[in-house]
Design a protein that fits this description.
The structure is a homodimer.
Chain A: H1 8-12, H2 32-47, H3 51-67, H4 69-85, H5 90-96, H6 100-115, E1 123-128, E2 134-141, E3 144-149, H7 154-165, E4 169-173, H8 179-195, E5 203-205, H9 211-218, E6 226-230, H10 233-242, E7 255-259, H11 265-277, E8 286-292, H12 293-309, E9 313-316, H13 318-323, E10 328-329, E11 343-349, H14 352-362, E12 367-371, H15 375-384, E13 389-394, E14 411-413, E15 421-423, E16 429-440
Parallel strand pairs in A: 3-4, 3-6, 4-5, 7-8, 7-12, 8-11, 9-10, 9-11, 12-13
Antiparallel strand pairs in A: 1-2, 2-16, 14-15
């Protein structure tokens, strides 16, 4: 970690707290590999820390965030101005916002993570074998995690807090559009870690460079233990395609709700509205409603009226359009489509089997739900539908780490390796075997 | 799964049981992609099966193996002859053997797997949330697994049994040197599955082609959920480098044992002998002994004498050679080396820290052990050494799925994602979230 002057990004804009805390000594513009090597060194120290030390860092982080709300907001204004000038969409600019309210919410989220139980060191399946060996599986940190993400700068802090709590070092590679905000957040992270005596390289903001530098980061086998892409499908595909390090990916959420014959129509209406209207731009929003033909007439009339009140456009199959004249004709491309908008695809199906078949073909293994009164069909749906979260008589919006009791999440995996569904602290660790003996040898 | 004549491999040598059981109808020489698509279809059916149906298939497999011992041995003789003609090493030819004794052992191992508890459907962390939702994490199969392996043809059956028990379809891509044996084993698998009415494409032997065909298999994202390479470092590296599908990899085992100051010398001697001599060619064999300088004089004399009796060559550091004159001088390349032979590297170190430092630099995250009487140093070693299995006062040879209580293993992962250490049935599944409600919506 040799001597040298402070790196360019830090030198160019000293934060409010710059004078108060020690800052890392590092050569100008470390390479991606140098950053990863420092992260690996930091990870070794983090892995040995007790929860108390890590929680102290997180509480320091929350304090430093609040104290730096002004410089953060100022850097964010510069990012927003540059984004406007570059013609970014209103939606992207909205996600880019990090004013005082977002800073406060982010600091509060860090405190929530600090209060979660530490997964590291927890043991399961401890048992004494016939030969007297005590064997247990023990949770340990993964090591170095690379977060690759876009737009929302609060992800920088959310991800850092979760990674640190689980004993991992993290390389935070955000998008160019948030680079000034992220740079200040990197200073805040370093200041917080430094204040409590933890390695400042444990959470590093990697400057948003070109795709080549991301590719380099994704090729650092042996230095990076896991890459987590979070963002649009283009970003996730790029990471999946170029990574030589392990990746847990979250593509998109094409969530279905199936209304069974004989279902509670009022419940169905509430589930559809909640799934589609509460927050249409997120991955667990409802994108397609499947309705059993025996339920269609009664259910669709009431549901369509409520959706219309909320300005939702229905893209329906022919039978749907008979029952809901205002519905637009769905095209083939509307099945399996993530609208992320006030648009809902609706299809009338002849059976539960047809609904499962539709989901198998068009679903994204994210979230799938059934509304039914029939216990056998509920169980069949749960058993035969393959998704990270399957629900009976509940809104798809519940597929979320916070809602499902994980405390917080770093993403939702739609691939099955390592994690499937919302990834909480436990997903940022792995289990090893610990064996205690008294001289046993193998026969 | 359209009609067509039987595939070439099967047609060319009808097995003894060929007339008794239905055989899959398939076009001649399906492509790798076609095989994977059929596997995916089979996986959907397997995922819904109860343990009873899967166990029946495994018992049928054990029966068919025993009934086919003769055709298996005959095909194996042809592989061995071709291998000898091609100049394969004695070690490889030895691993290639599948005579009646190996067939019987393999059939017995299948029966062991049949008796293991089914991981699919098991739930944990089931709880009722404040809003009344019942949430649980439930184990489900991964889907389609591609095994890429070399030499030992019994892996074909071992891997198939584990994958099927966990509800997965499997593509078995063995080495060219075992292709005739594996082809007959593929017939045995199809016959067993067919007999009990399970999809015959659930376990397919993929003909050993060139590396290009392996690369194609490893590129089938969306069809193959996991690739498991098992074999030499060259094979594992090839898979890691070319896979677009997730890989759990097992490189090599460079296992260390550290003899602490004040350790029980007799225990130390037993652990060293067991680690090095019992089966030197396996990945959990001991490759390097680290000895605290205060223990070196007493321990090394006794250990070296015992090792000499077993014909073990010692490659020692200068201090080791002072104490053991027969020791050869170790070169830099001997640290971190997997000898897989009756050779042991020995280094005298000044402290526990130096031992941990050596392991950090030269270990392979496989298996690391300490022999000590001191509880504090035992705990420090366990906490600071990063390996899939860490042991106190026990032989490194215990890092094995069977020995650690997993019942059986499909490999030992030295990477941390998804699995770290021996992979049993549980590693061939993942957890999803299952939510049962009564109309809850998100606020």
């Amino acid at each position: 970690m040799g001597a040298g002057s402070r790196c360019g990004a830090r030198r160019s804009r000293p934060g409010a707290h710059a004078a108060r805390v020690p800052r890392p000594e590092a050569p100008i513009s470390p390479t991606i590999r140098e950053r990863a090597e420092r992260a690996r060194g930091a990870a070794r120290r983090l892995a040995r820390l007790d929860a108390g030390a890590k929680d102290a860092a997180l509480h320091a982080l929350a304090r430093h965030l609040r104290a730096s709300a002004e410089p953060i907001a100022e850097a964010n204004r510069r990012d927003l101005e540059a984004g406007q000038a570059a013609g970014l969409s209103v939606a992207v600019l909205d996600r880019l916002q990090m004013g005082p309210a977002v800073v406060e919410a982010t600091a509060a989220a860090v405190e929530v993570v600090a209060r979660l139980p530490d997964p590291v060191g927890s043991q399961r399946e401890g048992r004494r074998l016939a030969n007297g060996l005590l064997v247990a599986r023990e949770r340990v940190p993964l090591g170095v995690i690379a977060m690759i993400y876009e737009a929302r700068p609060n992800v920088t802090i959310d991800a850092a807090a979760l990674c640190l709590k689980a004993g991992n070092a993290v390389l935070l590679r955000g998008g160019k559009e948030a680079s000034q905000t992220n740079s200040v957040l990197g200073e805040v992270l370093a200041a917080s870690l430094g204040e409590v005596g933890l390695p400042v390289f444990a959470a590093q903001v990697v400057p948003a460079g070109d795709r080549e530098s991301t590719r380099e980061l994704l090729g650092l086998t042996g230095l990076v233990d896991l890459a987590i892409p979070r963002g649009g499908e283009g970003l996730v595909r790029f990471v999946a395609e170029h990574a030589r390090v392990p990746v847990v990916q979250h593509y998109h959420g094409v969530c279905h709700l199936y209304l069974d014959a004989g279902c509670d129509v009022e419940m169905a209406r509430a589930l559809v509205l909640n799934g589609k209207v509460q927050r249409p731009g997120v991955c667990n929003a409802l994108e397609c409603l499947l309705v059993h033909e025996d339920a269609a007439r009664e259910a669709l009339a009431s549901i369509a009226a409520s959706l219309a009140e909320h300005g939702v456009e229905i893209r329906g199959c022919p039978r749907t359009r008979e029952l809901v004249p205002a519905a637009v004709a769905a095209t083939g491309a509307d099945w399996g489509r993530e609208f992320l908008d006030l648009v809902l695809a609706v299809r009338v199906v002849p059976s539960l089997e047809a609904a499962i078949e539709h989901i198998e073909r068009h679903g994204s293994h994210h979230t799938e739900a059934i509304c039914t009164r029939d216990v056998e069909r509920a169980e069949r749906f749960l058993r035969e539908v393959d998704a990270s979260c399957v629900l009976v008589n509940a809104s798809t919006r519940f597929n979320d780490g916070g809602q499902l009791g994980l405390g917080a999440e770093i993403g939702i995996s739609t691939s099955k390796l390592h994690a499937y569904g919302p990834m909480g602290l436990e997903s940022l660790t792995c289990e090893r075997f610990v064996v205690r003996g008294s001289g046993q040898v193998r026969r």
